[in-house]
Amino acid sequence: MLAPAAEYPQTDGTSHPCSTEAASLRSRAEQLATQNAKLQRDAESAEELNARLAEEMAQLKAQLRCSQQALEQARAAAEELEDLKTVTKGLEEENGELRRQARQLEKEQRCLCLRADGLQEENQRLLAEGHGLREQLQALAAEMTDLEAQLCRCTALLSSRDAALAQVSTARGCAQLRPPPRPPSPPAALGLPRSPLPRPEPPTPRSPSLPPLFRRQGSGWRS
Fold it and tell me: Where along the chain do its domains lie?
């Protein structure tokens, strides 16, 4: 760096032969000082510009990092979107299958409702038939009780008739074994012909009357 012009000794041009050269040196020194000051100002401006550029570079790096992060997030979101599309497609297929099953279940439910209605009608019909059959069974039970009572009475009557027939047969056998009585002798003594006396017939026992339900035919009984 050159010294300022005031530091050089000032001499008159007529008094020293180097005055022209000194003036030129002074002028050159002033120019150099001016250039030096300008260079200093330029250096300061360059430093300020460099600082601003460094700040801008840091901001650009931060923006780049943010952009890279945003790009990575966008890629992850795109991959997640593809996964969601795949899942959505699977869910749509599953939803279609569930709808088809729901329609099938509705058809089966309608069939079951119709079948339940038919079974209910059949149950009501069977209940009515069962009620009628119970009434018939009650009537048959009453008739069976009546028939058993009639059978008991007929059995008692038949036993009485068999006992009466046995007594009649015994009495008839005893009458056949007993000799007939002889007629008196006066008619024979008078010379009249003897006439045999009629043999008395044993009384025929009457059979007890049977109810109209049972009548005897041959060797069996019929109603």
Answer: 5-9+16-132
Q: Please enumerate in sequence order all residues whose Cβ is within 8 A of that of 13, keeping only pairs 6 or more positions apart, or say none.
A: 19, 20, 23
Beta carbons within 10 angstroms of residue 117's beta carbon:
10
- Mean pLDDT over residues 158-176, rounded? 84
| Among the listed residues 218, 207, 219, the one whose alpha carbon sits nearest the alpha carbon of residue 154 | 207
Question: Which pLDDT belongs to residue 205?
Answer: 46
Q: Taking 60 as the threshold, does the pLDDT of residue 14 lie above it?
A: no
Q: Could you give the CA distance from residue 217 to residue 26 in angstroms, rounded to a whole number?
A: 184
Strands 215-217 and 220-222: antiparallel
Tens-digit pLDDT profile for residues 58-108? 999 999 999 999 999 999 999 999 999 999 999 999 999 999 999 999 999
174 phi/psi in degrees, rounded to 5: -65, -35
Q: Is 107 exposed, middle or buried (CB count within 10 Å of its CB: 0-12, 13-18, 19+)?
A: exposed
The larger pLDDT score, comparing residue 3 to residue 26, is at 26
Strands (E), the chain: 215-217, 220-222
pTM: predicted TM-score of the whole model, two decimal places? 0.35
Please state, in angstroms and rounded to a whole number, the distance separating the CA atoms of residues 104 and 98: 10
User: Do the Cβ atoms of 201 and 172 come closer than 8 Å?
Assistant: no
Strand partners, 221: 216
Class of residue 26 by CB neighbours under 10 A (exposed 0-12, middle 13-18, buried 19+): middle
Q: Which residues have C-beta within 8 Å of that of residue 150, sequence separation ≥ 6?
A: 211, 213, 214
